[in-house]
Amino acid sequence: MTRLPDFRLEVYFSRWEFTARYHLAASDAQTMTMAELLALADDEDRHAWETLSLGYTETFGDPGLRRAVAATYERVEADDVLVFAGAQEALYLAMQVLLGPGDHAVVVTPCYQSAETVPMALCEVTGVALDPANDWALDLAAVAAAIRPNTRVVSVNFPGNPTGKVIPAADLARLAALCEERGIHLFSDEVYRGLELDPARTLPQAADLSPTALSLNVTSKSLGMPGLRIGWIACRDRELRSRLERAKHYTTICNSAPSEILARIAIKAREHILARNRGIIAANLPRFEAFFGAYGDLFEWRAPDGGCVTFPRYLGADGVEAFCAELVERAGVLLLPGSVYRSELTSTPDDRFRLGVGRADPGPALEAWASFLDGR
């Protein structure tokens, strides 16, 4: 295993996330207060919260939480769920368990950096790029062509970060079948599921499509509760699940007891929370449409198919890196420049930036951004 590189997104955020006046790069939906979340608890979970003992918890995760998670799938049982301290731990340990020297992985780009760099630290990796000229379409033939006899993992993320892309459900089903036929684990990052603009385009979950696939999810993104630090992997391969649990012994061992109860409440109330968050996004999108329409000479923009991030194009002569730096330094408006999503595996657009559309009331940020552009 080679040394992992700096995590570019976190390095950038460590400088600006809590100092910039306006955060327009957020990857999560609008959060809730503790009081708002506890008001959604049923009697069982309110009692569990009020009588909670702050001891160690089960490595696999709180049984009630695992049951609540399993209920969001069609073919997954509670025993098929393993709870982690966020999606990052889950992704990291899954790659450690699934990959080693002599193996090969296929990663669809652009993607969250660790989806690429963790496999690259373990084995050979081939990237397959979404096509920005074709609405970020996924070329299934290119994925199939990238597969080798020693391929162990194909990694995808839909709705996508940062593109907001949702592929056709038939394409995901074909990909799951292809992986299963060839003895490959499909690793599917589904953290934005539930925030599709058109609910009819909501994709099936990979763990329901194939007994060898892994579905990754978390309370952070669609539910807007990153402070809980609770994520999970659902997989019907019990032997693999056992290996994942043993790997967790070397990281967090177990999760935060309060966070597991709060996550249980959130997941049971997920339809209510997701409807709220979809409503916030729906209210925000016309404001972003109007903003980018007013500055059509500088930006190309499209709303996300799903999730709460999108990847607009900057057309200015100064370049997106310089533009984002000047915008945050002079106007206090934070965007994520495209270099954060630079891939070592594929050519990636160098004129894009990540924009978050899931937080409440972007008006003041858009006004500051417009004043900056008008004053240049």
Question: Can you tag this structure with a few keywords?
Answer:
alpha/beta, transaminase activity, 376 residues, three-stranded antiparallel sheet, 14 helices, globular, Aminotransferase class I/II-fold pyridoxal phosphate-dependent enzyme, seven-stranded mixed sheet
What does the model show?
The protein has 376 residues and is of the alpha/beta class. Helices cover 39% and strands 14% of the residues. Strands 2-8-7-6-5-3-4 form a seven-stranded mixed β-sheet, with helices on both faces. The longest helix has 25 residues, at 270-294. InterPro entries: Aminotransferase_I/II_large, PyrdxlP-dep_Trfase, PyrdxlP-dep_Trfase_major, PyrdxlP-dep_Trfase_small. Residues 53-357 form the Aminotransferase class I/classII large domain.
Number of strands: 14
Strand content: 5-15%
* Bulk shape: globular
Describe the main β-sheet briefly.
7 strands, mixed
Q: Secondary-structure element sequence?
A: HEHHHEHEHEHEHEHEEHHHEEEHEEEH
Could you tell me the radius of gyration in angstroms? 20 Å
Average of the residue pLDDT scores: 97
Judged by helices, strands and strand pairing, the structural class is alpha/beta
Number of helices: 14
